Protein: Pyrroline-5-carboxylate reductase
Amino acid sequence: MSKPQTIAFIGAGNMASAIIGGMIENGFKAENIWVSAPDDSHLQSLRKRFGVSVTTDNRHCAQQADMIVLAVKPQVMRQVCQDIAPVVQNTRPLMVSIAAGLECATLDNWLGGGLPVVRVMPNTPSLVGKGSAGLYATDDVEQAQRDAVSAIFESIGVAVWVEQEDLLHAVTALSGSGPAYFFLMLEALEDAAVANGLEAATARKLAIQTMAGAAEMAGRGPDEPAQLKRNVMSPGGTTEQAIRTFEDGGLRELVTKASTAAYSRSGEMARELAKDDE
Ligand SMILES: NC(=O)C1=CN([C@@H]2O[C@H](COP(=O)(O)OP(=O)(O)OC[C@H]3O[C@@H](n4cnc5c(N)ncnc54)[C@H](O)[C@@H]3O)[C@@H](O)[C@H]2O)C=CC1
Ligand SMILES: O=C(O)[C@@H]1CCC=N1
Structure:
């Protein structure tokens, strides 16, 4: 693949914007990126922000591409795939789906069969170059195509390949949905600090920096999170009280329950969408 690849995004919502924004910030050329969606306001906003080419015609968008990123909601994916199937059966690009739950076999069937398919579970911090993505490729995907997908998702964060498709449910429950868990924590910490008398803006600034600082320390290692936590807990001090309150209140069990709910929903979506395929 010596010439720069043309990448087409079908769908122009939160995730497509996050990935495209991250790509442009990290050196991908806008002239090699096409985007389609029925919603012209989404398209115009992407065109203005990033300079990418846009169209409301999915087939026209698909026609341009060596790689097509399917970035629509799982529920509209069937219609989108069946619409572009005649084009992609002719041009045979690499198909990349970021939809939660939707399995490669189902997608491939909707696309007419026999195409190389990669599934990616990204997340919204891709927009700021701090994304986390789990990736899975079918046997039809060549190494150069895997490398091309890795290049995109590594340019906007961390990209990890899994060898079994089912593991993407676990990735979804961890990093796909995960940003929302941390935003919830941020909201709760800010509210608590305001109740303790801080200005909201001050509380938010401190809470965000605390979260970012803790993540940076955990990422750099070598200490385990448990040790890093102990380092903050002076015997008889304040942190001990807070951590005991979290543990006694069942925070770990609640986190397991919440993650399992996301994991189960991902599997359920895969089964529902596969049934839709019958
Ligand atoms: N939002 C997130 O944090 C994550 C989302 N995902 C997956 O990404 C996919 C997109 O999600 P979001 O970006 O959040 O959704 P969104 O609702 O923000 O964007 C969906 C986009 O699809 C477009 N669209 C609707 N019907 C279409 C059609 N027939 N043809 C072309 N485009 C069409 C809409 O105009 C919109 O631009 C979903 O499959 C979701 O499972 C994956 C990981 C994280
Ligand atoms: O909530 C969802 O279904 C999507 C997948 C992961 C994040 N958002």
